[in-house]
């Protein structure tokens, strides 16, 4: 029983959760049961003197109890009535209530805000959660893959795009509240540009020649450019594997430009071998995969010349030549021989014995590659000639 000796007394305390229902306050049980009406009655009666409501921390206080009044302090919580069991100290008239997982009083609320989005100029943004009530709130975050776990905090900086979800939990009454925010990144804005400063549809070379590859980045970034070769076109040179993938080299831009030269382009005799080369950012982010593509055609012509043995005197003998490749190129034959003989026919007729050289030329774009072979026309006495086909080969460019 409490008896007040002043005109008015200040009575206050906390309504707290007796979570383990042992009748006493234990460490870890907390004090917060907000939004409950606390009523003050005359002792052992139903006469209501005054009432108040617990704040967001579970605290209540009144100064409206009159002098010389014995009181009971009660709360009704989930259809059960609880009394302050110890009123010897009016400033600590705590009330124990039995809490369950649904004992939330006024339901908590949490909001999540972000300060903008990620961009080329903004590599991290602040995310802030605001919980009501704030006291006793614990923050548990679900974050995108690759992001750093912020831990139990209401604010942190995010550098990875995705959905950030917070769940606020209150240890004293098992109440929870959740909310989320989506962080986006402008992928195109953040990407550095990469281009060919001297673009051409084709880089044609002869076997063994070197090709120079150049790129321009704007603005000049502190990055490194790598060049990789494939046997055929690929959609994403950053992730493509197989297909003859060969690393050709790398370079760091200087003044916004970077270049590398390579002759690592194996030729195939008698054909045009096509390669595709890609210039890529060597350490690209998931958002920036710009590249420059080049086509390299390696020309390696092949020719076979044939002559023979003919009865003397030679009145007419035919030289023959067969050159490859023929498709996709402009090709030509040029013969030279004894006594100043020349011809641009593929299979010319001659009237003199001797060595005849044919040069086979193939041109693609502005590049011409050549190869040569020699055929022998031999003269033998009538009646003793043995059919003979003779050729000698000499390569060229």
Automatic annotation (TrEMBL):
Which chain regions cross the lipid bilayer?
none
A GO CC annotation recorded here is: extracellular region
Any idea where the SD-repeat containing protein B domain is?
9-76
Q: Which UniProt keywords apply?
A: Secreted, Signal
Compartments where found: Secreted
Q: Which InterPro entries match?
A: Ig-like_fold, PKD_dom_sf, Sdr_B
Instruction: Tell me yes or no: is Phosphoprotein among this UniProt entry's keywords.
Output: no
Note whether RNA-binding occurs among the keywords: no
Task: List the Pfam families.
Answer: SdrD_B
This protein's name = SD-repeat containing protein B domain-containing protein
Q: Which species does this protein come from?
A: Persicitalea jodogahamensis
Q: What is the lineage of its organism?
A: Bacteria, Pseudomonadati, Bacteroidota, Cytophagia, Cytophagales
């Amino acid at each position: 029983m409490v008896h007040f000796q002043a005109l008015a007394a200040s009575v206050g305390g906390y309504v707290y959760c007796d979570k383990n229902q042992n009748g006493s306050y234990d460490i870890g049980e907390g004090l917060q049961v907000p939004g409950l009406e606390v009523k003050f009655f005359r002792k052992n009666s139903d006469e209501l003197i005054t009432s108040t409501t617990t704040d967001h921390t579970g605290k209540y206080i009144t100064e409206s109890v009159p002098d010389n009044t014995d009181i009971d302090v009660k709360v009704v919580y989930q259809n059960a009535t609880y009394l302050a069991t110890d009123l010897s100290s009016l400033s600590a008239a705590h009330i124990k209530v039995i809490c369950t997982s649904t004992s939330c009083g006024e339901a908590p609320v949490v909001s999540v805000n972000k300060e903008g989005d990620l961009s080329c100029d903004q590599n991290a943004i602040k995310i802030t959660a605001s919980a009501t009530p704030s006291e006793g709130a614990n923050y548990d975050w679900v974050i995108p893959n690759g992001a750093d776990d912020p831990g139990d905090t209401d604010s942190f900086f995010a550098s990875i795009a995705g959905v950030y979800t917070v769940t606020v939990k209150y240890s004293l009454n098992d109440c929870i509240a959740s909310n989320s925010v989506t962080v986006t990144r402008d992928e195109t804005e953040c990407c550095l540009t990469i281009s060919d400063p001297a673009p051409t549809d084709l880089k044609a070379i002869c076997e063994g020649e070197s090709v120079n590859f150049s790129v321009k980045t704007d603005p000049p970034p502190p990055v490194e450019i790598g060049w990789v070769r494939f046997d055929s076109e690929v959609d994403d040179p950053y992730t493509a594997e197989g297909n003859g993938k060969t690393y050709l080299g790398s370079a760091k831009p200087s003044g916004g430009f970077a270049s590398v030269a390579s002759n690592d382009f194996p030729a195939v005799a008698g054909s045009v071998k096509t390669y595709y080369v890609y210039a890529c950012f060597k350490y690209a982010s998931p958002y920036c995969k710009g590249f420059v593509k080049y086509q390299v055609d390696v020309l390696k012509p092949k020719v076979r010349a044939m002559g023979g043995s003919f009865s003397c005197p030679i009145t007419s003998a035919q030289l023959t030549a067969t050159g490859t490749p023929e498709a996709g190129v402009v090709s030509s034959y040029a013969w030279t021989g004894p006594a100043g003989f020349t011809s641009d026919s593929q299979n010319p007729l001659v009237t003199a014995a001797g060595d005849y050289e044919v040069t086979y030329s193939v041109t693609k774009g502005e590049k011409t590659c050549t190869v040569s072979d020699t055929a022998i026309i031999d003269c033998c006495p009538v009646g003793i000639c043995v059919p003979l086909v003779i050729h000698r080969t000499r390569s060229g460019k």
